[in-house]
Amino acid sequence: MLPTPSLEVATRWTVLLGLEAIAGVIFVEMLVGGINMWHLLHGLRKDGTYYVSPERVQLLIATLAVGMTYLAHAVATADSGRLPDVPTWWLAGLGSSQSIYLGGKAWRLLRSRRA
Amino acid sequence: MNSLSTTSALVTVTGWVILGFIALLEAIVIWLIVTGKINLNRLVSEPNGDASMSRLQLLIFTFVIGASLFLVIAGKAPPGFPDDIPGGVLTLLGISGSTYLVSKGIQFSSPDGTADRPPRVTVQPKQLETTGQPHPIVQQFTAALDRGPDQRVVWSIDSTPVIGTISSTGLYTGPKGPPAQGTKVVIKAASVADCRAVGYAEIIY
Description:
The complex is a heterodimer of chains A (about 120) and B (about 200). Chain A has about 120 residues and is mainly alpha-helical. Chain A contains 3 helices and 2 strands. In chain B, α2 (about 55-75) runs antiparallel to α3.
């Protein structure tokens, strides 16, 4: 027993608008300071001072690039009924980016322990 | 035939009731977030109060894959779950989740990574030398509070004897006659939102 077309349309819009509204609220809260974004791109030194962390910057760029590109693919192919696959080279790039981030974090931890 | 139409009507009514409930739930959640009853301030923060890159990327990928999955489900006629979830998508979520876990592991292995630090007030200029400047000294100080949306501070002079005055906006006005050379005046900016957050600046005569 299938739901009526009007119920289908209403469901589609309700969920889509709900998801977009929650994403929008979170995005605005990030911009206006309601969600703490302090030192997102900074690392912390042993002496308590901060520095701009290249590994965090590159991870943010990689995450936004992969996320936005994938979402654009999904929007373009939504009618196919299949989730688009993620190309292997994207995964390799993202994996490398995450490894650089984790490697940098681990290295700073080791260095601060030696100091 | 009658039984079929009754069942169809029942399905439709049930569908509308469930949809109404979901819409109401969404509206309540958004309303609670907007009014601050659901506090998202530390949604992507580390235990020490700094924003977390690994939490942010996990949030972004969760939204991206969630939204994409919904678009695909809604795009099918009739709507339906896709036949398979591509391996690349699962790998992407796996990479994101693993990074988050390993990052937390590294962080929790050091006390610096978990100890909560209070918000910090930074006062500018940090130090002011008045040598050679005309008196009375007039200087505008500014304060910035990190890790908090409420930037309001209370200005005061934190050294004795109290030399000069400071306004509620951080405008310092020194005495007409300069005090003894080498006298230090300490300017204090205390956060209204968090009494632990205090910043200082110095004026050296």
